[in-house]
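Thread amino acids onto this structure.
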């Protein structure tokens, strides 16, 4: 399935003491891992949203990669996502994956599961398995929690349909983040178009 992608890399990194997207990880800038993974997974186009004036810095960070272009982001993540959506050139029915540059461990398998989860769903997100024991705090005797029904949500988020509908669809999904766990890797959950339970990837 063809798809487009937006990598949001316009943050200031205020909690991390500076922008994370330019920092090195394994000999490559953090941004390069995310963009490279999406291109390797078959993205038709990748729009990289960076701080205004940082386009040259993005070009340096993504040296050796093709099939992407940079646009200036906004003051908030929502504004940056909107800037990325406005820059897409694909048809309105092309699925779009929105990923944060600060999450560098995306794989082609993650992307494939997200795209599969969009079959019959408005939007999908990636949830990873939890290897640790979970307990509920605030109890004299903490009670264990079912790890199979819980998990951290990772990027990217995925949605299909006209660009103007994507924020609404992804917003509906964010309000019901109940991850679906898959043995051996992350799972993907889809938000159904009709009211009812979300549709997990098989």
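Threaded sequence (202 positions):
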């Amino acid at each position: 399935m063809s798809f487009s992608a937006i990598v949001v890399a316009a943050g200031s990194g205020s909690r991390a003491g500076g922008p994370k997207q330019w920092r090195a990880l394994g000999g490559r800038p953090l941004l390069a891992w995310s963009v490279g993974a999406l291109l390797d997974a078959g993205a038709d186009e990748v729009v990289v949203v960076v701080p205004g004036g940082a386009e040259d810095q993005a070009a340096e960070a993504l040296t050796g990669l093709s099939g992407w272009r940079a646009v200036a982001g906004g003051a908030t993540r929502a504004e940056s996502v909107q800037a990325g959506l406005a820059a897409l050139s694909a048809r309105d029915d092309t699925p779009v994956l929105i990923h944060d540059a600060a999450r560098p461990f995306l794989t082609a398998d993650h992307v494939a599961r997200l795209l599969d989860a969009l079959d019959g769903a408005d939007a999908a997100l990636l949830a990873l398995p939890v290897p640790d024991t979970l307990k509920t705090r605030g109890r004299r005797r903490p009670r264990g929690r079912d790890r199979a029904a819980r998990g951290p949500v990772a990027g990217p988020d995925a949605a299909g349909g006209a660009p103007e509908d994507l924020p609404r669809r992804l917003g509906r999904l964010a309000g019901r983040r109940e991850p679906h766990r898959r043995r051996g890797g992350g799972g993907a959950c889809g938000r159904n178009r009709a009211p009812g339970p979300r549709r997990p990837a098989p």
